[in-house]
Write a structure and sequence with these properties.
This protein is α+β, with helices and mostly antiparallel strands. Helices cover about 30% and strands about 30% of the residues.
Length: about 170
């Protein structure tokens, strides 16, 4: 009786493991490709996009927090490192998070960790040279997304915070 079911069970286990591996390899890249297409306004990569204040209809990727201002940089490092500069922002909290092509978090820093100083990060593949003054962030795959989040008080004017946030930039190293 066991011999009769042994091969079908082994074949079933083999296909289950194979399906799981394929799923784990494909889904993260597919999700990041979708996220990049949604935040890359006009298909533009390696450029910081500063989003408006979140409303009830804002749904570019997930449910955004109404207490945060978002800036994003969908990037492609195939032509060289991508440099991200985040200027200090006079807000209770701001951060830079960089996600690689497999949705892994490659880098996270916030104003509490930096003492309110600017962040200079260079997103690059292994072997790409990093300019002086930039912290290297090595990523898997050519594409990904960097996200700047700024905590705001919705009851107070945000013009100054928004102007400071818009000083953040993203560009390919020359």
């Amino acid at each position: 009786m066991i011999n009769r079911w042994l091969w079908p069970i082994l074949v079933g286990v083999f296909f289950a493991v194979a399906a799981w591996q394929v799923t784990m390899a494909i889904i993260p890249r597919t999700l990041m490709t979708l996220a990049i297409s949604r935040v890359a306004q006009g298909g533009s990569l390696n450029r910081m996009v500063h989003g408006p204040l979140v409303t009830a209809k804002s749904r570019a990727i997930v449910r955004p927090s109404p207490d945060l201002l978002y800036s994003s940089c969908p990037f492609d490092v195939s032509r060289g490192p991508v440099l991200i500069d985040v200027a200090p922002i006079e807000a209770p909290y701001w951060s830079l998070a960089i996600f690689d092509s497999e949705t892994n978090v490659a880098f996270v820093r916030n104003n509490l960790q930096t003492g309110g100083k600017p962040i200079h990060a260079a997103i690059a593949l292994a072997g790409q040279a990093i300019p002086a003054g930039y912290q290297p962030v090595r990523v898997a795959g050519n594409r990904g997304a960097a996200l700047v989040r700024v905590l705001v008080n919705r009851l107070a004017p945000i013009d100054e915070i928004d102007a400071e946030r818009r000083q953040s930039s993203c560009r390919v190293a020359r």
